[in-house]
Amino acid sequence: MADLWPVVSDAVASLAPRLALDLACAYVVVQGVYVRLYPRREYAFTYWLLNLITFSVAYMLSGVRVEMGLSLGLFAVFGILRYRTEAMRIRDLTYLFVVIGLAIMNGVASERTGLVRVVFIDAAILAVVAALELRQAQHREDTVLVRYDRLELLQAEQREALLADLSKRLGATCERAVIEHVDLMHDSAELVVTYRTAPRT
What we know:
The chain is an alpha+beta fold. Helices cover 59% and strands 14% of the residues. The protein has 2 domains: 4-134, no CATH class; 141-196.
């Protein structure tokens, strides 16, 4: 039992700083930026668990000699797991790659790389995410897929009337509307509507 304690203490001393750093980065990205700006809070559960699982796998593999192709393949496998039952927006998918990338980087960083370098890289990633998102937090745009029933307003000359009708129905200022699909049999169309969201505090 006395021989086991040094091994456990060394393992904890090696794991704890990396895990704390990874969880701190995930908290900033998920809770500090994403959940604060977007209403899709159910993705926060996914981001947290994928980050933790990816970090665990990467950390366990950091002591095993693997080829670069296998490392990239592991990253691709986690990236492909997008829960095919639901389409994810590009922005949501980008956050997925961010939390996975942070977990892999924090998990596989070797002692030669040093924790200080990893901290600087993490800080740079977090700074870029925060700068790109928070600078437009007061007046930002979002998109939504809408099934629309007034086909007569889809004509080019009716663009202003279309945006006014969508703004009234959605309760937000609609900036653009792109026609994705028109179903003449059911007199409806699918529109990707870009609207300006209310300021968040």
